[in-house]
Design goal:
Helix content: 40-55%
Strand content: 5-15%
Oligomer: single chain
Strand order of the largest sheet: 1-4-5-6-7-8-9
Radius of gyration: 19 Å
Largest sheet: 7 strands, parallel
């Protein structure tokens, strides 16, 4: 197996980058991520780019998910739609965590109603050794989509993202979504050398994916570890944290805020922070004041409105949003978000109203 740890020609943010030329450096989002007092309380939503928006469904008609991600004009348009509609304080790049696999040449597709499905699961040392290399050149559609998006966003930051190595590797081992991720969890212990090689391949692919987005104009980056909640702390620290740190090594030197988020990871919060990030995303299971306590009161937080409350009566949802804001008030910074992604059946007008409510509450 050849390494996918190629670097860009410069490895730095150029003078025209939004963080460098001043467009986004003082935005509410970046200010809160850096522990400062923003001009207004920042909010964005995971999975805001698509799913629930009628304009998204219209432009996606007849276009497969991964194809949409790899058409720069379309990916850019979908990324911009929720910013126009909701007045959120950030765009999240429209893509998918398996795009690095696709661009490397791994056979993978998004099957409607199922999720990512690989042509051939990766379960042996030979399978890992046969994995192709993700090149910098292959990521040009991603860079082009980011450039187009940033040119339209002005002072609104774009957040880049990637799947964390465990989540990516879990899909690769299982070959499809899994409820308990027994395959990768078994491989860690039964064949740790193969697991380490696979986790490192995934780390390099995700790291290069993050690097492409940041150097093309994203002002922050989030690592999603959707399935890390299936792990105990000891396994996470031994078998997963080193790979997550390796992925982030691709972009630390840029100085852009780095966010780490997982679902069902309340018991891993400190270990996930220790891989080297600036902000911790918190899912809906853990109150923000408790997350702040566990992290020593020194880490900006992101979260964590429960998506299940979005269809609730407005007085119930409003009270919950205010509780979330109050619980996050003790952290050095707080970016309001959901504790997971926007459900596809969500009424977009509810999200707009939630943004208006959050913006009406002055930062402390």
């Amino acid at each position: 197996m050849t390494s996918s740890s190629a670097v860009s020609p410069t490895g730095t943010l150029d003078a025209g980058h939004p963080l460098i030329d001043g467009r986004t450096a003082d935005s509410p989002l970046i200010t809160a991520y850096r522990g400062g007092k923003p001009s207004r309380r920042p909010v964005w939503f995971m999975r805001q780019a698509g799913r629930s928006l009628p304009e998204y469904l219209k432009v996606r008609e007849g276009v497969a998910m991964l194809d949409a991600c790899l058409r720069p004009e379309l990916a850019s348009e979908i990324t911009l739609q929720p910013v126009r509609r909701h007045d959120v304080d950030a765009a999240i790049f429209f893509s998918d965590i398996v795009i690095p696999l696709k661009l490397a040449g791994v056979g993978v597709d998004i099957v409607p109603g199922v999720g990512p499905v690989l042509d051939h699961p990766v379960r042996t040392a030979a399978d890992v050794a046969a994995l192709p290399t993700l090149t910098w050149e292959a990521l040009e559609p991603i860079r082009e989509a980011v450039r187009r998006t940033v040119a339209e966003l002005g002072s609104t930051p774009l957040i880049g993202f990637a799947g964390a190595p465990f989540t990516l590797a879990a899909y690769m081992v299982e070959g499809k979504p899994s409820r308990d991720h027994l395959g990768p969890r078994t491989m860690m212990h039964a064949d740790p050398e193969t697991w380490t090689a696979l986790a490192n391949w995934a780390a390099d692919a995700s790291g290069l994916f993050l690097q492409a987005q940041l150097e093309a104009g994203a002002s922050a980056a989030q690592l999603f570890d959707s399935w890390a909640g299936s792990l105990g702390l000891a396994d996470y620290e031994r078998f997963v944290a080193p790979a997550s740190a390796r992925a982030l090594d691709f972009v630390r030197h840029h100085g852009a805020p780095l966010i780490h988020f997982g679902t069902g990871t309340s018991e891993l919060l400190g270990a996930m922070y220790n891989v080297g990030v600036d902000v911790m995303g918190v899912d809906y299971r853990l109150p923000l004041d408790e997350a702040n306590r566990r992290l020593g009161g020194t880490v900006p937080l992101q979260g964590n409105i429960d998506p299940a409350l979005l269809p609730a009566p407005w007085d119930v949802l409003e009270a919950h949003v205010r509780d979330v804001i109050a619980a996050g008030s003790g952290a050095p910074g707080h970016v309001v978000n959901l504790g997971h992604g926007v459900p596809p059946e969500t009424d977009p007008d509810v999200l707009t109203r939630v943004v208006e409510l959050i913006h009406s509450i002055a930062p402390e």
